[in-house]
Specification:
The chain has 455 residues and is α+β, with helices and mostly antiparallel strands. Among the domains are: 177 residues, Galactose-binding domain-like (Jelly Rolls, Sandwich); 58 residues, no CATH class. Helix content is 17%, strand content 22%. The protein is built from four helices and 24 strands. Strands 1, 2, 3, 4, 5, 6, 7 and 8 form an eight-stranded antiparallel beta sheet that branches. The chain has a two-stranded antiparallel sheet with strand order 9-10. A hairpin with a 5-residue loop joins strand 11 and strand 12. The radius of gyration is 63 Å and the shape is rod-shaped.
Length: 455
């Protein structure tokens, strides 16, 4: 037969409480189940029927079980005001039942983990006095799970009033009172919690935040973290490497304007990798630092100097008409276009006439005059041969001109002769028996000449 306290319990809830019943018909579980499970299942404690109770296997004494737990899942994180428990009572066995009930604890949890209750929030710890079988305690916390826990450990001294053998746990009703909505407080659950309360929950009586969201502090979480601090409870420090010395975001710790030179990452807490520099490390070094050393991560300067052929602080400017480290050496003035290799000074396009060598710094004439070596003999020989060849070419040229001239002269004479002969007929001599001549005889007294005429 159930005691009258059970009726008072139910009536009390109906009459005096204005908070919401958060545990009614919610999912409940327990550590062990009695063999007649259907009669004593975990959900019996939240059905709002005081005639049905949950029951576990006993703990303590010779029982293999030394601890027991029962929990209810509220279905979400809620603001809790109080917990009411109706422990089963039997006529004439009230003291025994209170002794079994004694020493229990109530925990509020967001995870429901019963293997490590240290991660849960302790709401109530019983003792050393025996608890009433109709028990109520304020439990102003927020959470999703309400856990009932008890133990009878070996080699632990308990008060004489505690039952330590065959400790059965029998919960007829467990009622968790609070607000169904997690973001409200007050006896009528009609006041909104402050905006920056963690999980958007607050003290169900006065609305103060149990804890704050990252970046906020104060009883109502309406004060930003001080400059240079961020995160939960404002315990984390900004990196100090935000661009232009701006402060980081008080919630995330990020540098909204970017990172200072030499730093990268969302929190600007990573130094630039080698070969990068500048704000957020977005610039690449020139790659022309002396000995392939990395540049300064803030400025990009090659602090040890430049490779031969490059100049200025960043070593990104090639030498012009100069070469070597720092472009300190001018190209040879005998290089064509005054242009040479920026590293070693060798002329890129050859030498002016009269000079030779990689750097066009050797004078051919001076070399021939001053150096007496096989190479100079070769040059003398080459000069003589060249001179002889030139003379021979001139002679051949003159001969050719003379031959051409005489050939043209002969052709001219022949041409004129042919032109003259056209005015004369070819003379033909016809033999004639009649001689034009008479034999002359010279007489003694006569004239030896005769007057002759052409006919």
């Amino acid at each position: 037969m159930l005691p009258k306290t059970g009726f008072v319990f139910v009536t009390g809830i109906a009459i005096t409480l204005t908070y919401d019943d958060l545990s009614f018909q919610k999912n409940a579980t327990q550590s062990t189940e009695a063999w007649y499970y259907d009669l004593y299942k975990a959900d019996n404690a939240v059905d709002r029927n005081i005639t049905t109770c949950m029951r576990t296997e006993p703990i303590g004494g010779a029982s293999p079980d030394k601890t027991v737990w029962w929990k209810v899942d509220l279905g979400g994180v809620h603001n809790i005001y109080s917990v009411n428990i109706l422990f089963r009572s039997y006529d004439e066995y009230e003291s025994r039942q209170r002794g079994r009930f004694a020493g229990f604890s109530l925990y509020i949890s967001n995870s429901g983990d019963t293997s490590n209750l240290d991660n849960s929030s302790l709401c109530y710890k019983d003792g050393p006095q025996l608890p009433p079988l109709n028990f109520t305690t304020n439990c102003i916390k927020s959470g999703r799970y309400v856990i009932f826990y008890n133990e009878r450990l070996d080699n632990v001294g308990y008060p004489a009033s505690f039952v330590t053998l065959n400790v059965y746990t029998e919960l007829c009703e467990v009622q968790v009172n609070g607000c169904v909505r997690s973001d409200v407080y007050g006896s009528n659950c009609n006041e909104s919690c402050p905006t920056n309360c963690k999980y958007n929950t607050c003290d169900i009586e006065n609305g103060t935040c149990v804890s704050c969201e990252a970046g906020w502090r104060g009883r109502t979480c309406n004060t930003k973290c001080s400059d240079g601090l961020y995160g939960v409870n404002c315990t984390q420090q900004c990196s100090g490497h935000c661009r232009d010395n701006t402060v980081c975001d008080h919630v995330t710790g990020r540098c909204d304007m970017g990172c200072a030179t030499g730093w990268s990452g969302s929190l600007c807490n990573k130094i630039c990798e080698d070969w990068t520099f500048g704000n957020d490390c977005i610039n690449n070094c020139s790659g022309n630092c002396l000995d392939d050393s990395p540049c300064n991560k803030q400025t990009g300067y090659c602090e040890g100097g430049c490779k031969p052929g490059y100049t200025n602080a960043l070593c990104n400017k090639r030498c012009v008409q100069s070469f070597g480290e720092g472009c300190r050496y001018p190209c040879s003035k005998h290089c064509l276009n005054k242009t040479c290799n920026e590293s070693n000074g060798n002329c890129l396009y050859g030498c002016e006439m009269g000079f030779y060598g990689d750097k066009c710094d050797k004078d051919i004439c001076s070399h021939l005059k001053t150096e007496q070596n096989p190479m100079s003999s070769v040059w003398i020989y080459i000069g003589a041969v060249c001179f002889g060849i030139n003379i021979l070419v001139v002679i051949i040229f003159i001969v050719c001109l003379w031959g051409l001239y005489t050939n043209r002269l002969s052709i001219s004479i022949k041409t004129r002769s042919c032109a003259k002969s056209e005015h004369y007929a070819e003379a033909v001599v016809t033999p004639d028996d009649n001689s034009h001549y008479q034999e002359l005889s010279v007489s003694g007294g006569g004239n030896p000449y005769l007057n002759t005429t052409f006919n």
